[in-house]
Structure formats: structure tokens, C-alpha cells
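Q: Got a minute? One more chain.
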Amino acid sequence: MSKNLKRRAIDNIHFSIGAKLITIISIIVVISLGSITVLVSWMFRADLQIQAEEDNFEMNRRSTAEAETLLANMRSNSRVFIQTAAILGDRKNEIDELADLFFTENSQIAALFYFIPGKQEQLIINSSFFKSRDIDEQLASPFFNNQRAMLSRAVRGETIILNAAPYFSRAMLALLYPWHNDGVGGVLFSSDNLNHNFGFGVNQSFLINSGGDVLSHADFSLIKEGINIANLDFIRSILDTSDKSRQELLESDFGIMQSIPREANSDIILTLWNRIKSAAGAVFKSKSNNGEIKKIKQYVAFTKLNTAGAVVLTTIEYGRIFEGINATTRRNIFLTIAVLSISIIFIWLFSKTISIPLKSLAVAARNIEGGKFQIDLYSKSRDEIGVLTSSFNKMCSALHIFGRFTNKEIAVKAMRGEIKPGGFSKRGTVFFSDIRDFTAKSENFTKAFGSEASNKIVNWLNNYFTQMIDCVEKTNGVVDKFIGDAVMAHWGTAYTAGTPRKDAFNCIKAALMMRKSLYFMNKERRDGDPENPFIRIGCGINSGIVTAGQLGSDMRMEYTVIGDPVNLASRIEALTKPLCADILISEDTYELISDLFITEEMPPVTVKGKEKPVRIFAIVNFAGEPKGPQTMSEVRSILGMSTPNLKTVDVNADEKKYKITEG
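A: Always. Here it is, folded:
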């Protein structure tokens, strides 16, 4: 073996002095402060748990008192009115005056219903209530008419509280109660204040009736949807128990999966399933990020009201109880890191002979990563740093020689490593746009400017692309690539607005922004200007499941999307010219946003690989937007496009053949 290749004793480094110092100081700091952190957590965790139980139960008692007071006041006040109205008999003017005074003092009451045996049913409506909330007061009468079964139960002596929000699209409750001699009274009132107070703080309260209907909750969507949770095991146990109030620590997914009727239509099952899971996740905060219901642990306190068998439940997540002690633990960890960092700094001050050479080695390592292999390092020390410096010099010499026999870029990539190609399935919306008659415009540039035509075209296109890309980026879209004068972009792939519906909306919004931008750009252009000709574009949009990711070779990659929805979007864009439209969308996109935009259905399109003609829709404007075009005829007039008189259009988008039948 060569003498130069023999290992020296100093090369065998087991544990350096610097490492020993740092390790000893780190152990001391971590053990000392870590012990304090553990002791504090252990001592206070039990106390926090007890306090949290008491606070949750106390919050439940307060919520119960508030709900009880509201219901009692509604019943008491309405009974006083009904009693007075019964005494007044048929004196309508006096009853109207009484109603005005009553509703002035009880503005949260929407309507009163009562029936006294031997007399006609009466419905007194607070018109100002309905008007201030933009509700049709005519809905009140059919609402009570639809509650005949409940009114019959009230006549038999039962007090019933109902959720009226699904009927009026507002947070409203209806209280039905028995009246003297087989009569019945009812009051319809707002529960906005109750919903607001129930959602305050870390404790969440909600009110249910004896049938399991959610009557009041901070999340109005649960009330509006008329969610019923009587099928949950622990809710049934609460409704069936004789206990007035109790608190339990529960860990469950609340049996949501058992609430779906298996004999229903499959599409209805899927829709109902998702809505119930979403609602349960909002009520009990049990929905995970991927949409699946997960088991969580929480304290659930309940108290039964004296009115109508209603129950107030108050919950708090078990993990929220220990946020304070967890914050203290985090602060102690930060303190440990700070003390440890200061200790390391002091060690560094006494270890400059180590740190300075290490900095030089770090700079040399970065240069090697950048492909610079000719590096000269020098060290006087004969310790570990000296050995490392010598090894670096030998490695740099070897890499420099290796670089003469192969491509330097390949060597650098080999050292860094490459990201493996791959993709993921995403539900997104794909967009293609193209400039109309671009070839003819390019030829005009050549005729007008000769050898300078290329620069003129690039400047003209760059100005156009700048405006279009701004529209894409402002709507959270991703510009995939430029294909000559064409633009490909997609939404809901690299990042999403939250739902496929929102992503599709953003895509079409970007297309409408492009239309507006081009309109004003063209207004500033002069007729016949060879350097800045008018631009008209066609946009094709389709939604579906695509494969998105970094695609390409080991030498070149790009983030893009592929799949049948992409191909269809490109074909739809090609149809804008024969259909005389600037923005066309597929049926899949239309189903996502049909209520958000004004659209006109185009003639069906025959596409290769599809058994049936594809339905195509033209985008006119935002739904409900008074400004701008309201029909495709107006769009064509504004953009200067021709107006075809078409009955059907048989289009093979793959072969670029269009068979048009005049209407």
C-alpha cells in the first residue's frame, strides 16, 4: 500500500472536543429545564381538567337559563296577548291596536297563532318583523297550516318547540302549547340572539327538541338544513334518561355512518351522506382535513329544559382544555432552546479555531454544489479540521478531473439528486385560449416590417400575454404554458379555492376579465395599425379529473396537467370560431356554475371518442349583473363578431370539420 494512502492516527476521529463540550452543555440544559416543564405539566394538568369540567357545566347552566328564559317569556307574553284578545272578542280595531303595542314591545316575535274552541282560528302577523328581514309574511299562514299534526298534539296537552328555519331561511323557532278547553296557542319568533350567544367562546352550546331536531346553534347552516341528530347513540341516551342534567367525557364518531337509508337511490345516498357528515362535523367538530369523520374526545354536558322537553348541550374539546399548559410547555421549550443557543455561542467563542475553518469548508461545499470544482483550501491545524480540509482538497481535485471526462451539469445533478417524475389526480378546471387569425396577422407583420417583424410580433404578443396572465393570476389560476399565441391555464390543481365549484367560477371569471381587458385594449388600437392589430380570442373551458404534477424527463420538467378533460377543453376552444362565441364551456363545467352565470346553450358537438354529442354552453355574463351583455347577440355585437343563424352544428373537433345547417 502506498505511503500516501495509509491512514494516520489523527484521521480516526471518534468524538471531537467541540462535540463533547456542546453535548455536555446541551444535556445539562435539557435535563434541568425539561424536568421543570414535566413537573409543571404533571402538577397542573389534573387541576385544569377539573376546572374545565366545572366551566363546561357552568356554561351549560348559563345557556340553559338563557334558553329557558327565552322560551318562558315567549310563552308567557303570547299567553297574555291571547288572553286579552279572547276577552276583546270580535273588536278587531282594539285587537289590532293591542297587536301593534305587543309587537313593539316584543319585536323578536314574528307571528301569533291561537284557536279558542267555538271561535275561528286567528293568526296575528308582525309585518315589521318580516319586512325588516326581507321575508314574505305570506309564508306564516301556510307554515302553521302545515303543523296540523303538531297542533293536535298541543291540543292534547303537549308543549312542542319546532325549528322554523328551513321554512323561512332565517333563524326562527315556533312554540306550540295547549290553551284552555282544548284550545291551542302558538308563537313564531327569532332565535338570532340565542344562536349568537351559544357560539361564544371555546365552549359550544346548542339546543335540540325532544325529537332530536337541532333548534339553535352558532352555525346557521345546520339549522337551515333542519339537521336531526336523534339517531346518535348518546343523543338517544340523553333523551331517554330520567336525569335532569349530566356531563360525560365521550370519544366517538357519533354513528354518522349508520344514518343513511340503504334502499335509497345511490346518487341521493351520496348527497345525503356527505351533507350529514358535514353537519355532524360542524356540530361536534369531528371532521378531519380529508373529509373523513374521525373520533374525537370531548366533554358533553346537558340539561333538560322545563319547556317542551328541549335539551341544551354544551361541549368542549378535550384537547382545548390543556392549551394553556401546552403554551407554557412551548415557552419552556423555547427557553431551553434559547439557553442552549447562548451556551453554544459561548462555546463557539472559545472554538474559533474550529468554526473559522468550518465556514471555509461550508463555502467550498456550496461552490461544489454550484459546479465549481477548482478550490484551494489550506489549514495549519493537524486536528480533525485539518484532516477534513485535506480530504476536501482531494475531493475537489478528483471532481475537477472527472469533469473533464463527462458533462459538468450531469455531475452536479448527480450530487444534488433529482425529483422523481410523478403526478396526482386532481379535480380541476382547464382553460385554453387562442388568438383568432393569428397566422394572417403574422404574415401582415412580415409584409409590413420585413426583418423587424419578429421583434414586433414578440412585443405585440408580450403586451397581450401580460394582460391575460394578470387575469389568470388574480383568480388563483396557474399558467401552464404558451403554445405560440395560445394560452393554457388551470384552476384547482397546484392550489384550490376550496371546492371545484369555486375553481370553475374563478376560471370563467378570468375569461370574462380577459374579454373586458381585450375590449379596452382594442378600443385604444387604430384601424389598420400594422404594429398593433386588433385581437379577438376564443376560450375553451372544461372541468374534470386530471393528472397533475411534474412531468418530463430527468433533464427537463414542468408542472402541467394531462387527461381527457384537457383534450376536451382544447377541442372546445377550437369550436369558438364556427359557433361565433368567445367563451365556451363544457356540460361538466356548466353543472358546477349554471346558477352563477348567464349562459346560452350552443348546438351539440360531436367529439371523437364520445358516444353522444357533447353539450356546449356560451358564457354571456355574471348572473344578476345589470351591466354588460345579457344575451349572446349582445356579446357578438359588442365584440364585433358575426351572428350566425344556426339550427344545428355537427362538429368533429378532432378532424377540424364543421357541418353547419342553416336554421
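A: The longest strand covers residues 537-552.
Q: Perfect, thanks.
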